[in-house]
């Protein structure tokens, strides 16, 4: 049997992707999909989409999910229309990096004047900063919350009997009974996901947030970084560059919506609509760096935070407004999302953020409990 041409790889990969997410796709359907694409030319991506719908036949109740998978797989930088006004579109920009696994009150009226739903595109340069994040980067791997993996490792005590290997040792020792071999489930750090607000109301804090994000990517084995304003951009790959100046310059070039408006609810919904992105949040410690000043209806923000909380191990909102001792979560948006937050903390300085992230492994009362006491 002759090898398939390289051009067939995306279509085979799409079939594997659907099967990985529970779609019933037979090999014959994938073959029919490629034949249909060949017959159609294809002249456009619309032809490929129609061929996929006709041959792979997603069930009606999973059609939206199928569309999201198609957009994620065939478009490197894709656009997703989420719930809200039909003429508003949240653009999603992926940095193209490989997956690590096979893989949100205002304390015064003036504080919300910079919050806007209008898109404003600009770029930014980052200047050299000192090495105050070095100690944080060194402590981070051991400070992150951990989970028990399904993989096991050998242990001299306090484990379960590895019966198969123990029997093998007995046979090799001619029936003598050696010390039993024990194994235990491995403990691995949880993923850390940062969602950074780069809108105009956050412009005084964005540079520090990006430096913190670089230290996190350098120190943690599995970390993902996204920026959002009027668009959503994944910048993890750029921040993997060891030199901070080069990494921040690369990230600055990728993000198009610096210091513009904010559509926090629709943008977070767009993040959750892409299966590859939403998988980053599953079982992770998720930290949203934003003032959560959502203009207009906050229903989409409430929906997005609720869904994000359901996926995450711990969901935290770090707002610079909480640096004011008079701050209270009294806006409609913050009151709506507070029950779904594990933490609502001060995000006004690097020191407070570093101390908080290094404490993620320690249990703490829910945000709603703490702020009811304060209020």
From TrEMBL:
Comp. bias (Basic and acidic residues): 90-110
Region described as Disordered: 90-116
Superkingdom as given in the UniProt entry: Bacteria
InterPro entries: UCP010256, Uncharacterised_CoxE, vWFA_dom_sf
Record Gene3D superfamilies: von Willebrand factor, type A domain
The protein's name in its UniProt record: VWA containing CoxE family protein
């Amino acid at each position: 049997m002759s090898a398939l041409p390289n051009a067939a790889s995306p279509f085979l990969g799409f079939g594997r992707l659907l099967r990985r997410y529970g779609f019933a796709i037979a090999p014959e359907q994938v073959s029919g999909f490629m034949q249909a694409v060949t017959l159609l030319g294809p002249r456009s991506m619309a032809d490929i989409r129609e061929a996929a719908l006709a041959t792979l036949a997603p069930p009606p109740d999973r059609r939206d999910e199928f569309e999201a998978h198609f957009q994620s797989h065939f478009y490197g930088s894709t656009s997703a229309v989420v719930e809200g006004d039909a003429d508003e579109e949240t653009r999603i920009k992926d940095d193209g990096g490989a997956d690590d696994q096979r893989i949100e009150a205002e304390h015064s009226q003036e504080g919300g004047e910079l919050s806007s739903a209008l898109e404003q595109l600009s770029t930014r340069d980052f200047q050299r900063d000192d090495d105050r994040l070095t100690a944080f980067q060194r402590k981070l791997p051991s400070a992150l919350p951990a989970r028990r993996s399904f993989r096991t490792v050998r242990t001299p005590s306090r484990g379960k009997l590895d019966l198969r290997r123990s029997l093998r040792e007995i046979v090799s020792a001619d029936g003598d009974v050696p010390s039993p071999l024990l194994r235990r489930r491995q403990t691995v750090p949880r993923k850390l996901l940062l969602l950074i607000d780069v809108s105009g109301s956050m412009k005084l804090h964005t540079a520090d947030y990006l430096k913190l994000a670089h230290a996190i990517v350098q120190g943690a084995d599995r970390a993902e970084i996204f920026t959002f304003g009027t668009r959503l951009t994944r910048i993890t790959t750029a921040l993997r560059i060891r030199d901070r100046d080069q990494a921040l310059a690369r990230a600055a070039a990728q993000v198009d919506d610096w210091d513009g408006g904010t559509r926090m609810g629709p943008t977070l919904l767009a993040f959750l609509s892409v299966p590859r992105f939403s998988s980053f949040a599953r079982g992770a410690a998720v930290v949203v760096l934003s003032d959560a000043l959502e203009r207009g209806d906050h229903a989409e923000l409430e929906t997005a935070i609720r869904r994000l909380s359901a996926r995450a191990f711990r969901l935290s909102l770090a707002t610079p407004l909480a640096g004011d001792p008079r701050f209270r979560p009294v806006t409609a948006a913050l009151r709506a999302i507070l029950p779904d937050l594990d933490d609502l903390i001060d995000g006004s300085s690097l020191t407070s953020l570093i101390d908080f992230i290094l404490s993620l492994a320690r249990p703490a009362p829910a945000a709603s409990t703490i702020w009811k006491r304060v209020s």
